[in-house]
Write a structure and sequence with these properties.
2 copies of one chain form a homodimer.
Chain A lengths: L3 H15 L6 H8 L13 H25 L4 H18 L1 H10 L4 H20 L5 H23 L9 H18 L1
Helix pairs in contact in A: 3-4, 3-5, 3-6, 4-5, 4-7, 4-8, 7-8
Chain A binds a DNA duplex (30 and 30 nucleotides) through loops.
Chain lengths: 183, 183
DNA sequence: CATTTTGGCTAACGTAATTAGCCAAAAAGC
DNA sequence: GCTTTTTGGCTAATTACGTTAGCCAAAATG
């Protein structure tokens, strides 16, 4: 095995398959085929550093997905596309998404750096709304709150599944965005 | 020191003051003035059981706050009051709120039991909307997603604070509920 | 070819959760 | 009122994990 990047890729897979909470130095070392202390050659910050790297990986990934999803779209269509992209990421990478929701608290410094990229993508679409700066921030926060909250809850199984989750999400996105456009 | 209930009260305080993540058998035992093994006389399930009890405490508390907040209100006013009540709980009990967001995954069985009370309160107001069952569920999920997501993000410091969080929340609630009522 | 860096290892340590097994005081039963 | 059981605490020991120290071989670099 070799460099950080490959190890993080393995960790990302593990987080998604077995849960972010089940990541430990031992399980990671086992999966890589190495003894626990060897990981410290790559990550002197230990487990915390690995978890941060997963979070950073996640934000970069989200940045790309959101930017792609909004290409050529403005206003309602742009906002909607970004909401769907973020939820799709949460489904594709539940473990990484968990890392992002959770590990925030520790690392708000680093976190603000990292999220700048994402916020930049978002602002391109937000600008097309021609709202003032404060209102754009309200919109951004509202959308993030809804999508991250909804995704967190559904991934944790808090919603049950008798009624379609996809339809609930669509309903919520439509309601929120229609409220944003009209207000 | 004596019974479960008093110990949980202390744990709730600790979670809110020092963070849910910092709860450990040792810190709890210290605070109570007892040695770690003694806690197992009250909670045979160990730390996990304690964390579950905190979650249950939280849901009961939320149940009461939501029910009180919605008294005598219907439709928009009722929904809005419940959203504000839930966010107020998150602010008043950040540690317990964290427990609720986090510990969901482990305990979806128990969790579904516990949330029935809350969902009952909510349904009283939802019923006043005169929507069909499926749509009521969409509304419920959307509101929960938004409020829990927004609160989680602000408590984790993910939003910054240059622009008023209260105003962003108000904006989001108004947008979402207005979208819900019109749809 | 010499040297440094890289990436691995074993051994040891500190701390946390938990279990086993003991014991005194309070509570309940006769 | 005394006996017995339950309650709630303890110390000691176990297990598991993150981490550090210090050693070593192969690969990369000069």
């Amino acid at each position: 095995m070799a460099k950080k990047k490959e190890i993080i890729d393995v960790c990302v897979k593990m987080a998604d398959e077995e849960g972010f909470l089940n990541l430990s130095v031992k399980t990671i070392a086992d999966r890589i085929g190495v003894k626990p202390p060897s990981l410290y050659k790559h990550f002197q910050g230990g487990l915390d550093e690995i978890k941060q790297e997963i979070m950073v990986y996640g934000w970069n990934c989200i940045d790309i997905m959101i930017a792609k999803s909004a290409v050529g779209k403005t206003r309602e269509a742009g906002l909607k596309a970004m909401c769907y992209a973020l939820r799709e990421f949460a489904h594709a990478h539940p473990g990484v998404f968990e890392a992002i929701c959770w590990h925030n608290s520790y690392t708000s410094e680093l976190n603000h750096e990292v999220t700048k990229g994402v916020i930049a993508s978002l602002y391109a679409v937000l600008d097309s709304l021609e709202f003032d700066e404060v209102r754009k921030m309200h919109v951004l926060r509202s959308l993030r709150g809804f999508v991250e909250g909804f995704s967190m809850l559904e991934l944790h199984g808090s919603f049950g599944d008798e009624i379609s989750l996809d339809e609930s999400f669509e309903y919520g996105v439509n309601a929120l965005i229609s409220g944003i456009m009209k207000g």
